[in-house]
Amino acid sequence: MSVVGKLKKLHVSEIKKIWPHEEKDLSVWVSDNIDQLNEVLGLDIEILSKEEFVHNFRIDLAGTENYSQMPVIIENQFGSSNHDHLGKLITYSAAKEAGMIIWITNEFQVAHKEAIEWLNKISPAELTFYAIELEVYQIDSSLPAPNF
User: Fold this and answer.
1) What is the pLDDT of residues 91-109, one digit of tens each?
2) What CATH number was assigned to the domain covering residues 4-147?
């Protein structure tokens, strides 16, 4: 029997509905499911710390990329990208001397995508910035399916 008549509509959910709190929910999930991000990026990141203090600030996630041994920082953000989080990325990168800087959010404004592209263009080969959009899909009342 054909399933064509039984197809359902795919809905995009707000990530804040799935993970209500950035620090307690989203960062923990990203850390626990780093293999999903690794698969998308073709990397082997190992998370070593969560909410690590650097000066008066906290890095969401810090780790190492096992192939290159580069320090990695991951900054998670709810909503659309903003200047505040871009500044955090730069501050944390300098403090940790990170080689891989990953910014995860729902949606990137054009200006911030261009900023990440420009940073990659002017940076040495051992320094890479990633702009990763996180979406969550559902069909009817199915379990949410995160997608980087």
Assistant:
1) 999 999 999 999 999 999 9
2) 3.40.1350.10
